[in-house]
Amino acid sequence: MNLMNGNPLVEGAVDYTDNNDNSASYENSPDYLKVSLAAAMTLGFVPGMFYRNACLHCVNVLLTYDDGCRANCAYCGLQKSREGEYNEKSFIRVDWPVFKTDDIIGFTLKKKEIIHRICISMITHERAKEDTFNILKRFSSELHCPVSILMTPTILKHDDIDKFKEYGANMVTVALDAATPELFDEYRGRGVGGPHRWEKYNDILDYSVAVFGKNRVGCHLVVGLGETEKEMIYRIQSVRDRGGRSHLFSFYQEKGSKLESHPQCPAGQFRRVQVARHIIDYDMGRAEEMTFEEGGKVVDFGIPFKNVAEIIEGGTAFQTTGCPGKTEISACNRPFGDSSPRNIRSFPFELNAADVTRVRRELLEYD
Question: Which class for 39: exposed (0-12), middle (13-18), buried (19 or more C-beta within 10 A)?
Answer without folding.
Answer: buried
